[in-house]
Amino acid sequence: MTPNEKLYRIKVLGSDLEYLCSGRQTLLDGLKFRGEKAVTAGCRGGGCGICRVQIVSGEYIKTGTMSRDHVTEQGELLGDALACCINPASDIVLFPNKPARYCRSIVQ
Amino acid sequence: MALTGVLRPGHAQVRVLDLDACVLFYRDVLGLVETGRDKQGRVYFKCWDERDHNSYVIRQADKAGIDHFAFKVLDKATLEKLDSDLRAYGLSTERIPAGEMLETGERVRFEIASGHLIELYAEKTYVGNGLSEISPSPWGADAERGIAPLRLDHGLLYGPNIEANLKLFTEVLGFYLVESVSTPDGNGNAAIWLSCSHKVHDIAFAEYPEPGKLHHCSFMLDTWEQVLRAGDIMSMNKVPVDVGPTRHGVTRGTTIYAWDPSGNRFETFRGGYQPYPDYKPLTWPFENLGQGLDYPQRKLHDTFLTVVT
User: Fold this and answer.
1) Is the N or C terminus of chain B more exposed, i.e. has fewer CB atoms within 10 Å?
2) Which residue does chain A place closest to B286, by CA atoms?
3) 3-state helix, strand, coil in chain B (%, to 5)
């Protein structure tokens, strides 16, 4: 599948946020255009894990490489994904901000 | 002063998730010079004004981050002495044979308390900076290609037990403390900047719960205008930017932080001052960390504190 220009509805559980995201954008980029911070943006390159979400339903296309430090193969099967690395291919329901356990601040 | 012992950061080996995208980035956007590829698939770079074969090496992996950070030492006798001093201190060291990395001599590798692998070496092939050794021009074409930093200047590594690192680097490796950020109770260090030279730092550490993490590798530019130019080039190439352009309170450096295509943070900076080992260390109380990080905005940028690879 290749990313397409259709607009998909992304529902963020745990909030009343629902936003439209083009198939040409990552889930993270679609959210930032709204100015929303429901999913935290980090390195935007798949390396840091801070934008990890859990996909509850829907399909996506992987457009970036996700570090296995933050999305293991098993986790991926269970719905873990980095929002900066996936474009929607259908309407999606997700849990936001399930950041990798490594993402802890030096400010305790 | 005579620079002996540990001279300077020698190289960093960094893991990337997408090697091709990162080669394009490091070569064409950051403007490093690609100097080789080895049988393992590692890609070697140097900054245009560096004289040795390589200072930044990347390899494809399924996790981003840093493999090791290496320092060049004065000569083989120094390497032997430091190896013996490290072992006497209680660390176990490993010898990596000459040639394991292209154009690089034998390396002494050891793990420090924060979970990072550090290396020392004495020999790396001299390749020059592309300018003549007789009546050289001050710069050449490589100095304008991409961001084109002058050198790998330092790294900031995140991990636990930085007090033990402070002790090791000052008591065994000959570094001195230049600046620090205190812990909230004022009794310890949350972050430390260590120098083995005339620079404000050659390596830095920040206390962080997970071991072995890379905060950033840092590349030096010539002027503030070049830092601003770097920001322009980042935006032209849609490089995700973290902080800056701004100035740090700590070290006085003017800076931009951004991420490579695999999420490894890098810095393009200019500035600092020229400390000596007899200088007193400067201290930033924890509650003033915002000004230490971003002097004009006095802001604790959240991603700066939480995003590591």
Assistant:
1) N
2) A107
3) 20, 35, 40
